[in-house]
Structure of 4-hydroxybenzoate 3-monooxygenase:
Amino acid sequence: MRTQVGIIGAGPAGLLLARLLHTAGIDSVVLESRDRAYVETRQRAGILEQGTADALRAAGAGERMDREGLRHDGIELRFARRRHRVDFPTLTGGRSVTVYAQTEVCKDLIALQRREGGPLLFGAEALAVEDAATDRPRVRYRHRGRERVLECAYVAGCDGFHGVSRAAVPPTVARTYERSYPYAWLGVLAAVPPSHDELVYARHDRGFALLSLRSPTVSRLYLQVPAGTDPAAWSDAEIWDELERRLETDDAWQLARGPLTAKSVTPLRSFVHEPLRHGRLLLAGDAAHIVPPTGAKGLNLAVGDAVALARALIAAERGDPAPLAAYSADRLRRVWQAERFSNAMTALLHRPPDATPFDDRLQLAQLDRVATCRAARADLAEAYTGEPFTGGD
Ligand code: FAD
Ligand code: DHB
């Protein structure tokens, strides 16, 4: 098989890239190792920056998001049993975020691709990217039990952290930067209306807790747990008891309990692979970078990469190679800003297992600074709601 752009991975990055190329008249083939049901139900992120929501709208994938997504104008920071609101529009000149689950973003993009786009093959596992530094890169993949080859003008590696495309960048060219954290997130879905109308990020001596939501009737909650925790080690009642302790306030606020419908543990990791381009192989999304989830940046970065890469590939097809040449450096600036913010939010809200009393006091002073200083709050609000996607970004 032959195509202009071979896209590995049908997560948000690969699906949006395929959609944007299609609307510009450029052919692509998407190879996805898992089946459709798996991709559409895998629980992950839920917060869209304004730039992400705008990009989905511009791609023609915003209709259901605009109907069912929930606009949020702030978050609550909770520490020392008190609540402090961060109001986004007043701090950022009008910006907000949208609560709309990654599962729904993927469902909408898959439906569009199936209706109007090029081939999207589920159960097609990329094995290797070959000849990336030549004019004729190829993807070797397995589909329906047979090994096949996809010949391309460009290959987009959108295959997530555990994909194969990153390995095609020779070690002499690649540099990686990494940090792992001594804690993970135990995440649950609960069939109960969220106990607060905005997200609550809570710092507690027992560890971080987050109250989020998927819809007006479904809550999404997270607890900081030690790295390597088995989700089965926590009973439903233990999870609710722990959430209640960490979210407790001095006022009359109460946590509503309900049946848990999903439970999983996500490790926390920071990772960047440089550069994002090797010859005609371009990396986008989690294939090139991971952030710890505290700042809700992973999905938004993946969408930003896809928008920038689509613009660059469209320009290259029209005879202007400059945006493609600038893709890696332009995006890495954004990536490192997201790494900085995600790391800072993680440090602000989690309790390391070896925290000293001095560390605790310092962390509370940092939170107090955010709660009481407008400039500190504005800095958080600007990073959380995201820089607009502009120009070549
Ligand atoms: P992915 O969504 O990972 O998509 C990559 C796709 O490539 C997958 O469908 C995969 O099956 C496919 N693939 C992999 N290897 C191959 C291969 N060899 N051949 C073909 N296809 C392949 N972010 C937040 O902001 N908040 C969160 O709460 C949050 N929770 C997360 C929980 C988990 C468990 C994980 C893993 C991530 C979470 N993230 C979260 C991060 C966010 O979901 C990701 O940043 C986002 O999914 C990145 O999109 P992507 O398209 O780059 O990669
Ligand atoms: C969610 C995940 C995040 O990482 C975050 O910061 C906020 C919300 C969520 O899954 O709802």
Remarks:
- The chain has eleven helices and 19 strands.
- The longest strand covers residues 175-190.
- The radius of gyration is 21 Å.
